[in-house]
Amino acid sequence: MNHLESLGASERFVVLAQAYPSLLLARVVSQSRDLYRIATQQGEALAEVSGRFRFEALSPEAYPAVGDYVMIAPPLGDGSRAIIHHVLPRKSVFLRKAAGATSDAQVVAANIDIAFLCMSLNQNLNTARLERYLAVAWESGATPVVVLTKADLCPDVADVLHQIAPITLGVDVLVTQSDAPATVEAMRTYLKPGITASLMGSSGVGKSTLINLLAGAPLLSTAAIGWEDKGRHTTTHRELIPLPTGGVVIDTPGMRELGVESVDLARSFADIEALAQGCRFADCTHDREPGCAVHAAIQAGTLEARRLKSYQKLQREAEYETQRARQRDLSKINSMFGSKSAMKQMRDAAKQKNARR
After folding, report:
1. Could you tell me which residues come within 8 angstroms of residue 136 by beta carbon, excluding any fewer than 6 positions away?
2. Cα 163 vs. chain centroid, distance in angstroms?
3. I want to staple 71 with a disulfide (CB 3.0 to 4.6 A). Which of 5, 23, 268, 269 is the partner?
4. Domain range spanning residue 59?
5. Contact 103, 58 (CB under 8 A)
6. Crossing angle (nearest 10°) for helices 305-337 and 127-140
């Protein structure tokens, strides 16, 4: 097995790479600002994107991220860097809203098979956050697995599992604690050769501790968490980490704000979606309409009112972020080409030029 295969390269990406016979396939291992560490069949190298790539990229989402498969021109061997020309189509992607007032989104991790969604079992376990994580995980294309950490901080684990059961329908739930390394063994069953997993969750919930236990070595620094679930940031960058038993994991910084743009809530809120089929009106918003089956379930005590509020909140966020994204893309097109019609004319001219060659 070559170095690239050990980092999860599958036949899918080998086939996609054949469209660029003059370039080499690589995977992004880590990133520091505009500099990337990539893995090729032979080993690792530093890389940066080409000037043309920068010109054509319409948003930060277009740039390479940890976990991406990219096509590169290799370094010349004189201390130069490899040049990234293309990012291959992603099979899954996690996005986070960029810091500041901008509506841009950043890619947190790409080409993830398993998303371990980590939450600490303390007195401040946030069910709304878990619902958000699950909604985004399903939309990303990865398979979510909920990992409840630090069970020693919870006086009644069984009660917590009962509370989150409606939220985690169809999702595996694992319980771990840092002072009992054997509890992470269940995670290893998902981490087979060729599988890429990511650990996601708020700062301080124990992601780095879990990775250290899985790797069998203290690769990442860790920090304590208090009863208020306020941990310190111990991961400052994302990095692919190969495991000795096979598979790779990506540790991520604390996720303050996972994006919900265009998210499909049908799987993470399957109970509400099923109830909505019984509403009198097909476009029922579950607000004040007569004959609302969702409100009837709340009154009957079979659905929590809090869960409906969370569902509606994520719906509003998704609609808002989708509108912002469209406005952002249109603004960037206008700044580069003047208008959509001008962009289309330039593309048509380029096609005609290529056809005459």
Report:
1. 94, 95, 258, 259, 260, 263
2. 25
3. 23
4. 3-89
5. no
6. 50
Best-predicted range by mean pLDDT (105-109, 325-329, 342-346): 105-109
- Token pair, residue 116, equals 């371990």
Q: Which residues of 230-268 are buried (b: 16+ CB within 10 A; e: fewer)?
A: ebeebbeebbbbbbeeebbbbbbbbbeebbbbebebebb
Per-residue pLDDT, averaged over 247-258, amounts to 69
Taking 80 as the threshold, does the pLDDT of residue 67 lie above it?
Answer: yes
Query: Do residues 187 and 142 share a domain?
Result: yes
| Contact by Cβ (8 Å): 184, 193 | no
- Check if the beta carbon of residue 64 is closer than 8 Å to that of residue 108: no
Q: Are residues 82 and 221 in the same domain?
A: no
With contact defined as beta carbons under 8 Å apart, do 91 and 111 qualify?
yes
pLDDT value at position 230? 43
CA max distance for the chain: 74
The yes-or-no verdict on residue 234 having pLDDT over 80 is: no
Q: What's the rounded mean pLDDT across residues 35-42?
A: 92
**Which is higher by pLDDT, 317 or 239?**
239
User: By C-alpha distance, which of 196, 172, 185, 176 is closest to 246?
Assistant: 196
Q: What are the phi and psi torsion angles at 355 (to 5°)?
A: -70, -30
**Could you tell me which residues come within 8 angstroms of residue 206 by beta carbon, excluding any fewer than 6 positions away?**
118, 120, 149, 150, 176, 178, 222, 225
Give the pLDDT band of residue 92 (cuts 50, 70, 90): very high
pLDDT of residue 5: 83
CA atoms within 13 A on the CB side of 148: 27
Per-residue pLDDT tens over the stretch 160-170: 999 899 889 88
Name the strand (E) or helix (H) holding 184.
Answer: none
Number of domains composing the chain: 2
Q: Are residues 72 and 157 in the same domain?
A: no
CA distance 21 to 122: 53
